[in-house]
Amino acid sequence: MYKILKAETLAAKIHLMVVHAPRVASHCQPGQFIIVKLDEKGERIPLTICDYDREEGTVTIVFQEIGVSTIKMAELKAGDSFRDFVGPLGCPSEFVHEDIAEDIEELKKKKMVFVAGGVGTAPVYPQVKWLKAHGIDADVIVGAKTKDMLILEDQMEAVAGNYYPCTDDGSYGHAGMVTTMVEELVNNGNKYDVCVAIGPMIM
Questions:
Q1: Could you tell me if 182 and 174 are in contact, meaning their C-beta atoms sit under 8 angstroms apart?
Q2: Could you tell me the pTM of the whole model?
Q3: What distance, in Å, lies between the first and last C-alpha atoms of the chain?
Q4: Other CB atoms closer than 10 Å to residue 168's CB: what's the count?
Q5: What does the pLDDT look like over 5-31, one tens digit per residue?
Q6: 8-state DSSP, 45
């Protein structure tokens, strides 16, 4: 069993959980995912690793209520447990090299922008955090329908070179979609070598 140490609601139907899973935490990298199962009969749900703490042995996940299982998952509280918490799975982000100095130096020469829509903020955060820890600043554009739907703002501001929040309704930050923020930055003379976009297909 994998104990939930923290459970909080970030926005409407979007939740964050910190889970005690030392083996997963000791090996995971930004860009990878885990599969959780609530109980014996529960379905297997793949979720992005949003953050991890190797010393504490914890993995942070963020999920949105969509189907029966995630709605049931949202009812779990600190002290409850998952039956299964399998990972890390998948490939790490292409930027994550195991501290190979020459690769890091090459990355430092590139101007990067990450564009996140909604829950796409969760997989963007660990990549930008990893880059920051290795002396690389990346710009981050995060979009949501309204200010209340923006998630992980404080965490993202702490690791982003420049942070640009966007709201479709114009209630906060840049008024409009993340794509128009990209256009504005480029039109203002910003040049990017790499753009990583994570969000809905329309984005």
A1: no
A2: 0.86
A3: 38
A4: 14
A5: 999 999 899 999 999 999 999 999 999
A6: E
